Amino acid sequence: MSSPEPAVDIEDVEHRYGAVTALGPVRLTVPAGQFLVLVGASGCGKSTLLRLIAGFEQPSAGRVRVNGAQPVPGRGAGLVFQAPRLLPWKTVGGNVELALRYAGVPREDRPARVGELLERVGLPDVANRRTWEISGGQQQRVALARALAVPNPLLLLDEPFAALDALTRERLQEDLRQVSAASGRTCIFVTHSVDEAVFLGSRVVALTQRPGRVALDVPIDLPRAGVDAEELRRAPEFTAYRAEVRSTV
């Protein structure tokens, strides 16, 4: 019996910008449903690797496969960036509705789906507000709802909480943890925060300084069921994982 196709397969990938090797060689296999966090210092190639998985760039060497095929920009993966990148001339609901339209959801079904998605990210009452009328943390929730609107099995997140204050960041980390568990999607999350990596990931991969290579690849086995965020962060296992990742980074 053959093993299931991995969600992402990265085979000896290298990427260069001119004479500078930014990444690689890197070899990673990401099973479907896993929450993988890429962590490392600035400039280690985390975001470059994410762009290769999204299909925005092609590797200088090696091969990237998403669900068995070469990645195509805008297909196969939902994307959440550090900046929400919402359309300011549309309402909150209009931004999510646009993603549903591109996903081929019939017009008559979109209002209910917009409501469901905004409810999922904790924004049940803001559909008719303009994007500039809500906070930065709420805008990132809208960006997440927009990414979830497209039924792609893969979600890519490039430091989406980096510009937020600490309290908002922690609230959104917990929200994302719950949303990802409920959706069952494969997630690849980029961060330079060790605490964030251990809190979110079911697996953490730490990259070296440029050129980025895998320095640590560790599964994160934490008692998450029925455990709130503060209790999880106080767990001895959390402290041990954080120390292991921090010593590598």
Automatic annotation (TrEMBL):
Residues 8-234 form the ABC transporter domain. The keyword Nucleotide-binding applies. PROSITE patterns: ABC_TRANSPORTER_1, ABC_TRANSPORTER_2. One of its GO terms (molecular function) is ATP hydrolysis activity. Keywords: ATP-binding, Nucleotide-binding, Transport. The keyword Cell inner membrane does not apply. It comes from the Bacteria. PANTHER family: ALIPHATIC SULFONATES IMPORT ATP-BINDING PROTEIN SSUB (PTHR42788:SF13), TAURINE IMPORT ATP-BINDING PROTEIN-RELATED (PTHR42788). This is ABC transporter. It comes from Dactylosporangium matsuzakiense.
